[in-house]
Amino acid sequence: xxxxxxxxxxxxxxxxxxxxxxxxxxxSEYTKTDLSPDERVCRRFEIVCKNEQPKIHPDEKIVLVxxxxxxxxxxxxxxxxxxxxxxxxHELGYVSNLSLDYERVLQTGLLSIKxxxxxxxxxxxxxIIDLCDRYKEEAAKMGxxxxxxxxxxxPRYKARNFYEALQFxxxxxxxLWLEGDYHNTVGRFDMYMYPYLEADMKKGLYTEESALExxxxxxxxxxxxxxxxxxxxxxxxxxxxVLGGSDLEGNYxxxxxxxxxxxxxxxxxxxxxxxxxxxxxxxxxxxYELATELTKVGLGFPQYNNDDVVIPGLIKMGYAPEDAxxxxxxxxxxxxxxxxxxxxxxxxxxxxxxxVNNALRSExxxxxxxxxxxxxxxxxxxxxxxxxxxxxVWFAPSPFLDLLRSGRKYNxxxxxxxxxxxxxxxxxxxxxxxxxxxxxxxxxxxKAIDDNFESDxxxxxxxxxxxxxxxxxxxDASTEMSCIITEMFADALEGKxxxxxxxxxxxxxxxxxxxxxxxxxxxxxxxxxxHEALGTNFSPTLTAKVNGPVSVxxxxxxxxxxxxxxxxxxxxxxxxxxFADDSSxxxxxxxxxxxxxxxxxxxxxxxxxxxxxxSAQKTPEEFRQLVVRIWGWSAYFIELxxxxxxxxxxxxxxxV
Length: 656
Known about the structure:
This protein has three domains: 1-184, no CATH class; 222-271 and 280-326 and 569-656, no CATH class; 344-547, no CATH class. The chain has 28 helices and 17 strands. A six-stranded mixed β-sheet has the order 3-6-7-14-13-17. A three-stranded parallel β-sheet has the order 10-11-12. Strands 1-2 form a two-stranded parallel sheet. Helix 7 packs antiparallel against helix 8, helix 14 crosses helix 26 and helix 18 crosses helix 23 (476-493). The two termini are 35 Å apart.
């Protein structure tokens, strides 16, 4: 990677000046109401490809950059409203969060695939090949014979070497975004791409150093256009890459490309691609230490996924063993199957604290067990409400994406479980103070919650600062409650079939609901005030007092994750100052291994400095490259809305 390329795309971002909106004249060509949905999507793809202007930086190796922006939707708001009358529309209505069969396409080329393509698929293939030909012509004008040679081969024909495979992938990924598909994941990159690098290295074409240089150029390509990709916030774009992994016998695989990807990510300090690392009990400590180097530089990844839990859990859910061992992750953390998966892993979210608040008011309880029966009934009712409301799912056509599928074998839906620690802490507090010690009446707690503790500061202090908290020193009661809640969640979805014939998967993630649910949530019995944010994902509440990460890991690795395997990591924020200690890398690596050994299913780490983050809020121009982890993705801190910034600042900072 040349510094000039990095500066152009990442620091000065001069390439953004090349963009121009698609004119109304061309928009009218694909938004005509008499056109079918397939024709609209196909025609828009053709028009955008035709209007893209080939631009190549003199020093870059991996090409294609967007010069057309503000591309209008294929359907008007009125048309979407009409579609919604008879269908469930998920998010934007376009396909997202899949891991496609890049391997097959790299090995065959688009012309071979075109032989069995539909009319619309053949047209989009022609459109992207034409754009690549114009890039080849531009490269020839510049004297870039290396690019000319690559684009003469791909995407028409199969990739023959590492350089061609990387460029081919860029073309495929670029095309998915251009079509309107989003949260396009990378999948098990080091598994399907390594054979190309391995063969080239045996021929003496690359050393690790020269391969790294090309790989870094490739990594930059993920960041060229990411600001125009859809997401809740900048950075929420789903460009997730998975490295490493084990088979059914526990053999662990981590190759030269796996290592180079970690090194490239550490060197570049970019938010994309977002690295996920599959690990298990047999993962060597050296890999944890190399991965911790990414945490040290503040990237908020890799996210760790425990094969010892995930693979058998997926098999138990009905995934074939040969598919389960190939699992990857969706945009954030949801477990999906590459090539043949069609799961919608983030189709709903359950607000656990609201369920508990409702249960407290439902009737007069003779025992805590009666209260828990009401909680169970509330969870079941909410799951029934969510599952019954999602029928006849409809997505806009995606001819290019469909070329990259190898089947739709799995059609499962996933539901996030939001605010688990808040709900568990609330129940533990009620059990302790109302039913066991009889220190407070349930009526007093409900009254205090209803007026946001304004009339009862004494009770607020006890519940907020003295009551049990998951991850704290007095964590057992809350941890037990969390285990019960998650089992209730799994029970409520057990045996249900969705409208596509798949199952419903419970999970421990929150996505943006840790803020969205909190906006309409009153005070809770753990001492949380009304509208105060919940903990992100599967993590302690923001007010929990903990002495260190070990107690948190123990509390958040005790659940039966094989039943709540939609995904959702324990998120830990480390004080960045800990990495000043030479032994910090080995200490953090040991902590990760402890989490995996205890049976935790997912873990993500952040290295933060609250003072630096506050300074970045005051003078953002001085902190343009400051990266933080949000919920299942990393972002540049200054590009986030203040609500998200404040939540990161408020999280607990751990030391080791």
